[in-house]
Design a protein that fits this description.
4-stranded parallel β-sheet, Rossmann fold, 11 helices, 9 strands, 40% helix, 292 residues, 5-stranded parallel β-sheet, alpha/beta
Amino acid sequence: MSITAEEIATQPECWERASGIIPEVASALPATGEKVAVVGCGTSWFMAQSYAVLRERAGLGVTDAFAASEFPYGRDYDRIVAITRSGTTTEVLDLLRTVRGTVRTTAVIGDPATPIVDLVDDLVVLDFADEKSVVQTRFATSVLALLRTHLGEDITPAVADARRAIAEELSPSLLGAEQFSFLGTGWAYGIALEAGLKMREAAGAWTEAYPAMEYRHGPISITGPNRIAWVFGDLPEGLDGDVARTGGTLEASGTDPLADLIRVQRLAVAIAEAQGLNPDTPRNLTRSVVLS
């Protein structure tokens, strides 16, 4: 079994641990009413997008999500939350150095022995969810499990869904598909973006991701036989019929979107291995992007 596959399988336990440390780290996370910007790169940025939607939906304050390289420095925030597994990503460190002393900052990290610890006011360490793999899986999902719990959610159902997602067999129609369109509404759109990235990273697969209601405004044209439209969370009314008319296959489990992401992670590993690729060493990628 690949390292990536082993780490994927540990996610239910990691989510429970992340949820359990809330009493210890709550003061480091955004308080009710704070205007918050959440930043990251790649997978971390997509988790930031999901969290931003969830926090605003909970009525806890304005929350924006940005790729670290695209942060709008002219805006006024009460706190910046940086999500970074490695703590070494150049764009995140540059941002934190730039805003240091002007706004309160929090970093959610996997490795505390990194430069970021000296650049932030508050630190949340999920070292139990850190990874050896290049491709992020359990760290990112554990961050979102932590943040969802801090928002007042009970993630017990999500953990149960995650265990089922790990145990079930992957459908041959998914393993043999030539193209995937990942779709989601609300916070599940961030999960759809991450699903597309995971398949591209680990398996070099042809994937796209869209807000579910935007899919019919053009992207549906790519769907057809042996191609998958995968919906995270709620299925928009009538979308099943629209996909059926293309000859494509609709995948919509109705389970917690974060747990459904595990199925995509497993699928990416399986497709990579079927093609003779090693998911632990994806093409053109390193564990952290450190720019010279």
